[in-house]
Structure formats: C-alpha cells, structure tokens
Specification:
Elements lengths: L4 E4 L2 E4 L10 H5 L2 E9 L2 E3 L1 H14 L8 H14 L4 E9 L16 E8 L11 E7 L14 H12 L4 E6 L2 E5 L3 E6 L2 E4 L10 H13 L2 E4 L4 H5 L3 E6 L3 E8 L2 E2 L7 H17 L2
Parallel strand pairs: 7-8, 7-14, 11-12
Antiparallel strand pairs: 1-2, 1-6, 3-4, 3-5, 5-6, 8-9, 10-11, 10-13, 13-14, 14-15
Length: 283
C-alpha cells in the first residue's frame, strides 16, 4: 500500500483514493495539456517557466485556467515535500473535465486538474555515460508546440526505441530531425552546438531554453538551425535535453557510433553547467 500523496481538483489525497470520471475528456479524447518539472535538492527547478508554457498550451486549445500559477506552484512544491522528493519530478495535468461524450467543447467546462510526484536520479544519472537512440519517422500532428496529452505517436516511437534496445526515439520528418520522443535533440560540429528552431513542429523545451544561457556562460556558440539525420550521424557530438534528464550525451544512433563513442567535451561542459545552475537555484 503506497503512502504517496497526490493532488486532485484542490485536494491532497492518497494516490489509491484518487479517481476521475470515465467521461473525463482527457480519458476519452486526450483533451488536455500537461507539464513535468524537476525537483532538485528538494526544491522545484524552473517550475515558473513550465507554468508559463502550461498557460500557453491552455490558451492554444481554448481551455480555461482553473488555478493561477502561484497556486499551482505551491501545490507542486508541497507534493515534493510531502512525498520526500529530493531529486525527481512533479507531473501536472489539466483536462477539459467530464462531460457527455461529444467532440465539440461542452457548454460548461469544469477542468480536471491533478498532480503527483516521483523520485528520479538527476545529478547522478547513470545515463550520463551516454545513451543510444533509435531513429523513427515523426508521426505526430501539426501542433507539436502544444504540450498535449494526446501522445499516441510518442508512445509508439518510444516503444519502438525500447524494442530496439535504445533509451530514446530520435524522430525525423522529410529528412530533418525534429526532436526526441520526450526531449530536444542537439548536435555539435566544429565546436558549435546546433538545435532545431522552435515552430509548430517541435515543443519549445524549457531545458532547451535554459541551455542557451548555460552555453553563453560557458562560451559555447549555439545556432538554431534544422539538421538532417545524416548530419546527426556525422556530428562530432550529439546530445538530448529534457526536464528530467537535464543534458545527456547520445553516443549511438542505432548501430552508428557518434564521434568517439564517449560523451563529448562540449556535452560534458553543458551538463556540468546545467547541474551547477540547478544547485545554485535550489541551494
């Protein structure tokens, strides 16, 4: 019997006692949005940025806000504290609520909002030694900038990666790398880091945005430019960024060894810089 506490529609409750309606539109249609923020040293990391993106996602799908950012920030931190999370994550989801099944929005919307916390190794992540990714076609819809709970394409991509013995999926479309199954992808060539510019084709990753500042502090040049799968294969280094992986080196793309096959020096500088910033902000 778990002693974990979650939060559902304004109430802290044991996870075993938390239930939503079978008519919830998040269940029926994937009609909702979500965020995942890291917990470091027992404190939320960049949750304010995640909540700004959550509000944008809600506006883009016409979903009213049931709680303001300050309230949600307090809930997320309280969940980390109650569950004893020193390193890990807090997941927050908002759906359009329960209504009779019909595709258009219900006349009266009462959002379902819930959150939970989980431990996860972040500072001492065993994957920091390098991960393998599996290249798959990007099958998603045309609004990947919205952090939607409709994630069947990512589920299939990540399952394909798991079956291939890889840690993450590397998605591509029309010859260009888009992003990972739940991460942004970068390459390094001749000392310059490249990542795809934001558009409706990718999610504007919070960790991705932070890395621009980390790179600037480290004297690393970053160029926002799309790159091909072939360019990723030929890169000196390849890396992925996400809220709960921070910065991880990609050392293999399927059976191809990236660079030397070990974490590259620029990737290591970015990871170290990100960890130093996280420690400073949560001290």
């Amino acid at each position: 019997m778990s002693l974990r506490t979650c939060w559902l529609n304004g109430t802290y409750i044991a996870e075993e006692q938390a239930h939503v309606s079978i008519f919830d539109r998040g269940l029926l249609f994937g009609d909702g949005v979500y965020e995942v923020a890291a917990v470091f040293n027992g404190q939320l990391l960049d949750a304010d940025r995640h909540l700004v993106r959550l509000a944008r996602s809600q506006r883009e799908i016409g979903l009213p806000a049931a709680y303001d950012a300050a309230t949600l920030m307090g809930v997320m931190q309280e969940l980390a504290t109650r569950n004893g999370i020193q390193e890990g994550l807090v997941y927050l989801q908002v759906t359009r609520g329960a209504a009779e099944r019909d595709f258009p929005f219900p006349a009266q919307v009462h959002p379902t909002v819930f959150a939970y916390a989980r431990p996860k190794k972040l500072s001492d992540d065993p994957n920091a030694a390098g991960v393998r990714v599996h290249a798959v076609p990007d099958l998603r819809w045309q609004r990947c900038d919205i952090k939607s709970t409709s994630m069947l394409a990512q589920v299939l991509a990540k399952q394909a990666a798991r079956e291939a013995g890889a840690f993450e999926a590397l998605m591509h479309e029309d010859g260009l790398v888009t992003e990972g199954g739940s991460s942004n992808i970068w390459i390094v060539r001749d000392g310059i880091a490249y990542t795809r510019p934001t558009s409706h084709d990718i999610l504007a990753g919070i960790t991705r945005d932070v890395i621009f500042d980390v790179a600037d502090d480290a004297g690393v040049t970053v160029v926002q430019r799309a790159f091909t799968l072939e360019q990723a294969l030929a890169a000196d280094e390849c890396l992925m960024t996400s809220a709960t992986s921070f910065v991880l080196p990609i050392t293999r793309i399927d059976d191809h060894v990236v660079g030397s096959g070990a974490p590259g020096p620029l990737t290591q500088r970015l990871r170290e810089g990100y960890l130093a910033r996280a420690a400073r902000l949560t001290a």
